[in-house]
Amino acid sequence: MDAHLDVYLKMRCKFRASQKLLRDSRKCGTESETSLLMYQATMILRTIETDVADIMTDMSEERTEKEIMTFALMHVNLGLVYIDAEDFKAAEEQFMKYLNLVKGKEQQQELVIPVLSTLNHLGLIWTTWNQPAKAKMFLDKAEQIYKDFTSSDNGCKVPIPMEWNFTIEETDSNLSSTEILEGSYTCTLYYLAQVYKALNDHCNSAVYCHMTLSRQLGRNGIAPDLDYIEWALNAATLSQYLLKNNLFSARHHLAAASYVLQQYETILKGKTESNGDSEELAAEWENFKHRRADVARCWAKYGILLMSESRNNLLEDDETEEKSDQSEDADSSKSKLTNDLIFDVLEKEIESIASQVTDKYLLDFDDARPVFLNVQQWLKQAKEYYTLECHASDYISIVQDVSQAYKYLAFFEEHEDRRAKMHKRRIDVLESAVKELNPHYYKAACRQIWLELAETYSDILDIKLDRLESFNNAVTSQAFGKINHLARGSIQNLQLFIGSLEEHDSEPGMKEFPDDVMAPALRSYFYLGILYQKMITHDKKEQLINTENSINAYKFVIDYCDKYPKATEMMKVKLSHCNELVTLLKIKIDKLKLETSN
Question: Is the pTM of this model over 0.85?
Fold first, then answer.
């Protein structure tokens, strides 16, 4: 084997030379220099391919299987360098040659590590080529090989480093072969999570993300080499998928993310005490504050959704008790996720963090209030990093979350005055924010806030009108003034939204709205019609003006749907109302004109 070992070492030197050329090519100032170095690296790789082919042909039957498998590993090394050169087709060919040579022997202790590495790289290549189903085939095989190799039925074998295995793939020399195998399998799970996401199988993607995060923690708590920030961010991100499926076990992942960040903060404090301030440490603190704010925002989303879903649950009709088999299957799938996605090694440590907010539906104000207070605290913490001056878009999103928290809390409040005050608080925070924004640069954010302000003014208006009915005729002019003020506030914000959609050009006629704003634009006109009719006045001329404004708003919806038929289906129910109301209001106008003329 000495002669072959000598050849192997020479080939290894060629590998190193090709890698250096590839690294140097990335530092070149001109395209011609880069192309020349890439060409030289490729030529070296071609000579290695020839060397490997000659050696494999020259391998006599007297050679041991271990020697053959050792030289076969050169295909893996070639594939790795081709990946470095971004020649994925050549890399794929080399990896496939290796798999063909070791076919049926993947479970051997000397081969399991390079086989898993090869299958992982093939999964990455096919993912790069936007072929997730093909990538999944290789990654599934890697997962099965690992499970079979480590199963108790297989005797729990330990991988053995291959003799003369001078692989160029960089690994931590301090790691044992078992640790390298476990690391490769963790990569397999991570890649499978991405593949399932690309295949729109979000349930399995979540499961594999969780499995990856669990393995990164280690078996006895937080692993020494854990990337605290990345892990916490990934756990919090996974919680958002669980939230979309109304799985409040997301609380467990958020608690784990918060706990890991707490541990990292302790480490940073220790570094600061020992070494003082430095530019590098300041950057670490900045990154920590950034991601702590992100996790706080995820917590806030959890609390807001909990309040929202609790409201929906209370509003559901009793008639919806019967569920289809499909719904039962979906619930069963969600239940499985809820039960299985737990970080066992952290369960005791994070219990106190998780218990700060419930994972059960809220039934009344006493249930909702502590959730609301937690949401307020989380959003306050998020605003410490996401300021209006430095992160305007994120700041506005946080302000909107504050508004939503008040909105859902108001649902649980039975007292009318207190409910109205909660909506008034929404108006205060939204108006304060939108005043600071330039509508030209933050058009989308301003539009969202204008619509929400219109809705909020309307919510308070409805509360006041309901209360007005209970007083019958005992209503003061001051009460009328408040109602009209609220109606005008809603109208003004709808007009601001509509005004931001208008095209300022010389072409006459009704313009078509972009698809993304067509529905809110037409609904805005519809609600304008309603709001003008909610205004209260004893002056017949003002009533006439309000009624004409109302008809004009309804007619806009009718005329728009006539001109652009695709809007008809979108506005089907409201369009029918518009037609009915225009007919009725025309009668009212005729009556008012007659009364004002006398």
Answer: no
